[in-house]
Amino acid sequence: MRRIIPVSSGKGGVGKTTFAINFALTLSRVAPTVLIDLDTGTSSIRNTIDVPVGKDLYHFFRKGAALDECLTTLDGRIDPDGTYRNFAFIAAPRHAIDEITNLRDDLRWRLLHAINGLDARFIVLDLRAGLDANVVDFLPLSNSGVLVFTPHHPAATLAAADIVKSLLFRKLRIIFSEGSPFFRSLPDTSHHRMVTELLDAVEDVYEENLPNLDAFLVDLHGALGDNPYLRAIAWVLRSFGVYFVLNMFNGVQESYETSIRPFVESLRRNVSGKLTLTNLGWVVQDPRIHEANCRRTPILLQQPEERRTADPDPVRKELAALESSVLGLPAMRRERPRPVNLDELQRIDPSCTVDRQLEILERMYRDHGDRQVRENFAYIAHRALHVMKHLPPESFGLPRLYTPLEIFDQLRV
Ligand SMILES: Nc1ncnc2c1ncn2[C@@H]1O[C@H](COP(=O)(O)OP(=O)(O)O)[C@@H](O)[C@H]1O
Ligand SMILES: [Mg+2]
User: Fold this and answer.
1) Residue having the nearest C-alpha atom to atom 5 of ligand 1
2) Domains in the chain and their CATH numbers?
């Protein structure tokens, strides 16, 4: 099963590119993987991997090259054993080119189609920071892709929560837009204007009466009783998966207090307490990661260091541990909208409360707290693979990218 996995962060400097590179390298040991540099203004991937780049996105956009002609693979100098022979990347242009940095709709859709046509099992997208169409159009509608944040950059953590908010509102607006399958299925459209105006009010954080979608649901229930809008919103919230990775992890309590808790609280306050959150793991803070980047040989491409403990096969052990415990992974579900009652609306899903996140982090730490960078990536990749294997395709990443016109068909609520 093919999967496109976008990696994003609200702001730069959290280690998104570092994560995307090493994550893609790890996945490539399982199946052919392509990493695409969509942070086209800064081109950091080519500057972090020391191999000659033939063609890049410049050739795709300006010279009529096919996207698969723009793949760069590792050479024998940087990957002498061929461990990562299933890894390739598509570099952004060598220098910023406005037209490619700020893609027009038609160019972005051309790229989207070309990405869908790539022959790879996993396609990892290193997105730029921020929330414009160059980011949002590459994100799924039913999950967050991988959000990266770090205890060292609190503003970026809140910005990551804003990505989730923006995806959810975007999805609701598409579902509720006139002409959508949902709209056409409504027996009565007399409340449509009121509902969409209320939605605007919820998105507007300065509107204190309606702080989040949970309050909106309760209000809507009070006004209209059980109704298709309510069911659609409740379904969107219940089925949306938030996945995150903590970079520069600096201990359970510290990381929890300075990043996970603010992240979850921001989501709960401004979006909803009903979202399912999955911590995919963490990457320790380690100066060797930074040195490796500076030497243009990502940490996973460096010769492994001696292990501190005699451990024959940590990856296999992690797999076994995963099989015996799903560590807060969301349960398999393929729900459709169903009647919603007030009681249910007011209940907060215990699986995503702040306390549960601490518990999960503590359990994860108990199981792999002594692990080094290399195992951190193996662990995250195994958790991601576990999700891909056991949950429906739209739960994590996306099987293919959709242009806004195709999205309608995707959202038959
Ligand atoms: N886990 C880590 N430990 C130490 N330094 C890191 C780690 N992850 C990233 N860095 C360093 O942090 C800086 C930002 O990383 P980068 O991957 O470029 O972030 P982004 O893509 O989010 O802007 C870089 O200098 C990188 O070498
Ligand atoms: Mg980057």
Assistant:
1) 290
2) 3-173+234-410 (3.40.50.300)
Mutate to test the pocket of ligand 1, among 293, 302, 377, 380 (most ligand atoms within 8 A of CB): 293
CB neighbours of residue 393 within 10 Å: 15
Evaluate whether 184 touches 226 at the Cβ level (below 8 Å): no
- CB atoms near residue 289 (< 10 Å): 23
Position 377 scores a pLDDT of 94
Tell me how far apart the alpha carbons of residues 278 and 241 are, in angstroms, rounded to a whole number.
7
Consecutive 10-residue runs of the chain (413 residues): their mean pLDDT?
93 95 96 96 91 97 97 97 97 90 91 96 95 89 95 93 94 90 90 91 83 91 91 91 94 92 93 91 94 96 66 55 47 60 67 77 82 90 92 92 77 59
Going by alpha carbons, the residue nearest to atom 17 of ligand 1 is 15
- Name the residue with tokens 């959508």: 180
Helices (H), 271-327: 287-294, 314-324
Q: Which amino acid is at 404?
A: P
Strands 71-73 and 87-90: antiparallel
143, β-bridge pairs: 241
Distance, in Å, from the CA atom of 129 to the CA atom of 16, rounded to the nearest integer, reads 9
- Nearest bound ligand to CA 293? 1
Q: Which residue, judged by its Cα, is nearest atom 9 of ligand 1?
A: 15
**For ligand 1, which residues put their CB under 6 angstroms from it?**
9, 12-18, 44, 247-248, 283, 285-286, 289-290, 293
Tell me the residue ranges of DSSP E strands in 9-90: 33-37, 71-73, 87-90
* d(CA 151, ligand 1 centre) in Å: 13
What spacing in Å lies between the alpha carbon of 145 and ligand 1's midpoint?
19
Interhelix angle 354-368/261-270, rounded to 10 degrees, is 150
Return the sign of the alpha-carbon dihedral for residues 19, 20, 23, 26. negative
Q: What's the CA gap between 165 and 272, in Å, rounded?
A: 9
Percentages helix, strand, coil for the chain, rounded to the nearest 5? 50, 10, 40
pLDDT of amino acid 42? 83
93 within 8 A of 100, measured Cβ to Cβ: yes
